[in-house]
Design goal:
This protein is of the alpha+beta class and 495 residues long. Helix content is 38%, strand content 20%.
């Protein structure tokens, strides 16, 4: 039986996983790869140390799985989007890699918005301007590290760098590079006009060829085989942007489904065979792994990371704290209080001036009511994204949920109640690793298409039906949530 190995590159954790052709997990290994924070707002990683971590997790998976390296029929990837990993013409890192959460380029992005650059770029790149975009970071590098800028030989994203270390070949995987603001999503190619508009014309000649998620530029090199324990020549495939990996694990092979990811970020993704560009809202588009299809997504870091902060700050001494939270919320009536929690500890999806807060607290409220408000606030922020995607997709799409909070039955019921429709909770532990394995299985020819691979390798979902009796209460509270955010966003920004 062939097995497929995936390297999943997150912002702080790197994982490797081994899966068979039916999507069954054989082994997973993970190691932290913490960001280097030299200045406020910076988020970097040592690219050489990052590769050593990848090698260590691959070796650990091979050791714990009991499989021979010869059982591995292909290697693939899932990685965080955006960010910047630069190498010189000889393939050596120019400087530390920069992670997508980095915001050093914020003054540049603000100036672009003031100058109307975002409006000019959107009809080509189809991205909202973001400080972690490769184009934003390249502009920063040109302004602040001109010597490093001149040394750039190849512009890469996270899994492009790791794939190069496996194979010695340069490539830019399509689902990730199409979100770089250097790529014209409509035409399916790098766009010289974007490079010029953002003032990084010199980088056009440093862009690697674009490859599909299931395409291979080569096999594991002799050096990489020595470092990872894999067999030289094992095919290496393109991989995925992690948002697409989650969508693939949720079985998004056509337009019937919407994937809702709940993690530190909440991300809502839908796929379609055409881009709808007449909408006033600047949707974020990309090229999907299936030829001729696009994915559109909405996201913000307004999800479960807020609960993690709350538990760490206020319930660190409570045994089984997350189980305790679930029990407290389940014991309450739905939308029992008027307490609102705005889950904007990291960012907001409703206004630039918003930050996290509780509103409506009274002396009759206890910890249970506050925890319920945290759950609701995360769901309401998520519903903002869902409403925007539904404006494109239409309301009759099945919701498929992935991410850590899917283990909370009460939270999943709340999502279903607020959306007022059934949802399918997908039993996926590691969407990055499984998604990459699906890409490798298609690349290896085990399956003729991504649709066929998804049908065979994606797990079944557990259906959650909405309690429509609670719908009026949630509608009213959601409307109050939106109104509160709107008013608070009008307050002057504090120095």
């Amino acid at each position: 039986m062939p097995y497929f190995l995936t390297v999943d590159i997150g912002g702080t954790v790197i994982k490797s996983g081994l899966y068979d052709e039916y999507g069954r997990e054989k082994a997973v290994a993970s190691q932290t790869d913490l960001a280097i924070v030299e200045r406020v707002g910076w988020s970097e990683r040592d690219m050489t140390a990052m590769w050593r971590t990848v090698c260590a997790t691959v070796r650990q998976v091979l050791a714990t799985s009991g499989n021979s390296p010869r059982d591995v029929a292909g290697v693939s990837f899932s990685a965080h989007g955006k960010g910047l990993y630069l190498v010189d013409r000889d393939g050596a890192p120019v400087r530390n890699g920069i992670i997508s959460s980095d915001n050093r380029a914020l003054p540049i992005v603000r100036q672009w918005k003031t100058d109307g650059v975002d409006a000019k770029a959107y009809p080509r790149g189809y991205q909202q301007l973001w400080t972690g975009h490769p184009v934003s970071l390249l502009a920063w590098l040109k302004a602040h590290e001109p010597e490093n800028y001149r040394r750039v030989g190849h512009v890469l994203m996270a899994h492009d760098w790791v794939r190069y270390k496996f194979t010695g070949a340069f490539g830019a995987e399509v689902t990730n590079i199409s979100g770089s603001n250097l790529y014209n999503v409509g035409t399916g190619a790098y766009d010289p006009a974007l490079f010029k508009l953002f003032g990084v014309d010199e980088m056009l000649g440093c862009m690697p060829p674009v490859l599909g998620s299931e395409q291979s530029l080569g096999g594991v090199s002799r050096k990489a085989a020595e470092e990872t324990g894999l067999v030289e020549g094992t095919p290496v495939y393109g991989g995925f942007f992690d948002v697409v990996s989650a969508a693939v694990c949720a079985g998004l092979s056509d337009s019937r489904f919407i994937n809702v990811i709940m993690g530190t970020w909440t991300i809502v993704t839908w796929t379609t065979d055409h881009m709808e560009t007449t909408q006033q809202h600047p949707y974020i588009w990309g090229r999907y792994c299936i030829p001729g299809r696009f994915f559109v997504h909405e996201g913000s870091p307004t999800s479960a990371g807020n609960l993690e902060w709350f538990v760490h700050t206020f319930m660190s001494d409570v045994p089984n704290s997350y189980d305790r939270c679930n029990a407290m919320v389940e014991a309450l009536g739905k939308a029992e209080t008027n307490i609102q929690f705005l889950p904007y500890l990291f960012s907001s999806n409703l206004g630039d001036n918003l930050s996290a807060c509780f509103y409506g607290l009274a002396n009759a409220h206890g910890l249970n009511h506050i925890v319920q408000a945290v759950y609701e606030g995360v769901c309401f922020s998520q519903h903002v994204h869902l409403e925007r995607i539904r404006a494109l997709s239409g309301p009759d799409r099945t919701l498929r949920l992935t991410g850590g909070p899917t283990r909370s039955k009460v939270w999943m019921q709340m999502v279903s109640d607020i959306s007022e429709q059934p949802l399918e909770v997908m039993d996926v532990k590691e969407s990055g690793c499984l998604g990459g394995a699906i890409a490798a299985a298609v690349g290896a020819g085990i399956y003729a298409s991504f649709a066929e691979a998804m049908a065979a390798m994606c797990p079944a979902g557990t259906v959650v039906e909405p309690d429509l009796r609670a719908a009026p209460r949630y509608r009213a509270k959601y409307a109050a949530y939106r109104q509160l955010a709107e008013h608070l966003d009008e307050l002057p920004v504090q120095p």
